[in-house]
Write a structure and sequence with these properties.
Blueprint: H1 7-24, H2 31-54, H3 59-87, H4 94-117, H5 122-156
Length: 157
């Protein structure tokens, strides 16, 4: 009988296998996952923007929340790219990596502060928070799928 391996050694060997297969033979994301990622990004961004349009805020407040949405979307894409680059052995400076994480956290904190101080109903605050998080998460998934598809196409050609 073979002795049982600890979870730590299993996790280490799995992560090593994942890293070694990552660059050599990338897996193509399914069409359903790619489509679902794009749909959630569109739904999150559209619902957030429709909520802004229908809210009784001043234009400067609407501009603030719209800018936070764009800032957040860009920063999570930047985080995903820098984390993935590091996993694949592509050099990423510590400064860029840190700025990416800082900007992501800053966008979330700025949204929280803005909603905390806004004179909106609690349900409206929750709506903006949830559509913002949906947009950020789906932007991560879309960027990951885009990169996976590009890597898959370059290895199969």
């Amino acid at each position: 009988m073979e002795p049982l391996k600890s979870n730590e050694s299993n996790n280490n060997s799995e992560s090593k296998n994942a890293r070694s297969n990552y660059g050599n033979n990338p897996l193509k994301p399914s069409a359903a996952f790619v489509g679902a990622s794009w749909m959630t990004l569109i739904i999150g961004m559209t619902s957030y923007c429709i909520g802004l349009y229908n809210s009784a805020m001043a234009y400067n407040e609407k501009g603030y929340y719209f800018t936070i949405l764009l800032f957040g979307l860009f920063s999570v894409i930047s985080v995903q790219k820098s984390v993935r680059d590091r996993l694949e052995g592509i050099p990423v400076t510590d400064l860029y990596y840190s700025i990416s994480w800082f900007s992501t956290i800053a966008s979330i904190v700025l949204l929280i502060i803005g909603l905390w101080n806004a004179s909106l109903l609690l349900s409206e605050k929750g709506f903006f928070g949830m559509s913002f998080v949906l947009g950020l998460f789906s932007a991560l998934a879309v960027q990951k799928n885009t990169r996976d598809l590009k890597q898959f196409e370059s290895t199969t050609i």
